[in-house]
Specification:
The protein is an alpha+beta fold. It folds into three domains: about 1-60, no CATH class; about 90-165, Serine Threonine Protein Phosphatase 5, Tetratricopeptide repeat (Alpha Horseshoe), CATH 1.25.40; about 200-280, Sporulation related repeat (Alpha-Beta Plaits, 2-Layer Sandwich). Helix content is about 55%, strand content about 10%. A four-stranded antiparallel β-sheet has the order 2-3-1-4, covered by helices on one side. Helix 5 packs antiparallel against helix 6 (about 85-100). The longest helix is centred in the first third of the chain and has 16 residues, at about 1-15. The termini are far apart. The relative contact order is 0.07. Mean pLDDT is about 75; it is low at about 1-20 and about 170-200.
Length: about 280
């Protein structure tokens, strides 16, 4: 017993030195050692006030459900690029699902799937999303959502839902044969006409950035998903703090107001955070 006690003390000392290894705390919680984790939280919060993992653990052990919900929401707001943002979003979705708030749950899980490309638990989020839709009788909505998600994550399991029509995808754009004589006629006509300045509304300096990824493959998947919904999207290589990232941008708009309107629509529909940028290189 004494030997086990000293092992536990050593373990917590090790974690306190390396708070980033939050998985050790999660393992202890899974084993039911809740009080031991609680006993170490004050010190961790004092020493590491800006560690998302510490706040995530605090939310897990909090006995007040409403306070935990608020803490998970705070993590997603203050640490949006942390791995615990997606985990916190999942906890929020599970809370809605457990309370029978299925419409909120389905929107939450769909947002997680679209927003967190690198999340490791897409399948569970997908399962809960499907169950939430079906609980409210929205089979058509779940079919539409699954068709789009399957394009983004083809390796996930879709057959088990028994929903027909998921393999029917929209046709890709095809090249068409052009009449060379008609083209020559139009070119000649343009050359003979007086040259006019381009209308000002053709200059569209505003773009909407909806994500930046270390891996091009992740950025390209999101780009294709956005394009499949009728938006013009591109992937641009950018440098951020010395790191090369691949930014996904929706192009282009004549005014900032127009761009913000589309950005808000995307956020509402897919849960995508966005930035409106002026004429980025």
């Amino acid at each position: 017993m004494i030997h086990g006690y000293f092992n536990l003390v050593f373990l917590f000392g090790f974690i306190s030195i390396y708070p980033q290894n939050i998985n050790l705390y999660l393992t202890l919680l899974e084993k039911g050692s809740i009080q031991e984790v609680k006993d170490n939280l004050p010190e961790l919060l004092d020493r590491y006030p800006n560690d998302a993992g510490v706040y995530y653990i605090q939310a897990l052990v909090n006995e007040d459900g409403e306070s935990s919900i608020n803490q998970f929401q705070t993590i997603t707001k203050n640490f949006p690029n942390s791995q615990y943002a997606a985990k916190s979003e999942m906890k929020l979705g599970e809370y809605f699902f457990a309370r029978g708030l299925y419409s909120q749950a389905s929107s939450q899980f769909k947002k997680i799937i679209y927003k967190y490309i690198d999340f490791k638990d897409h399948q569970r989020a997908l399962d809960l999303m499907v169950n939430s839709f079906l609980a409210t009788g929205e089979e058509d909505s779940v079919r539409v959502a699954l068709k789009m998600i399957k394009q983004l994550y083809p390796s996930l399991e879709f057959d088990k839902y028994g929903i027909d029509g998921l393999d029917k995808v929209s046709r890709e754009a095809r090249l068409v044969r052009l009449d060379s004589k008609e083209i020559s006629k139009k070119i000649k006509s343009r050359k003979n006409s007086k040259r006019k300045p381009l209308p000002k509304d053709l200059f569209k300096p505003w773009v909407i950035q909806v994500g930046a990824f270390g891996k091009y493959e992740n950025a390209n998947r999101l780009k294709k998903q956005i394009q499949s919904n009728g938006y013009g999207a591109e992937v641009h290589a950018v440098n951020s703090n010395g790191k090369r990232l691949h930014a996904v941008r929706i192009v282009r708009y004549a005014s900032k107001k127009d761009a913000e309107k589309i950005g808000k629509s995307l956020k509402k529909k897919f849960g995508l955070d966005f930035r409106v940028l002026n004429n980025p290189k």
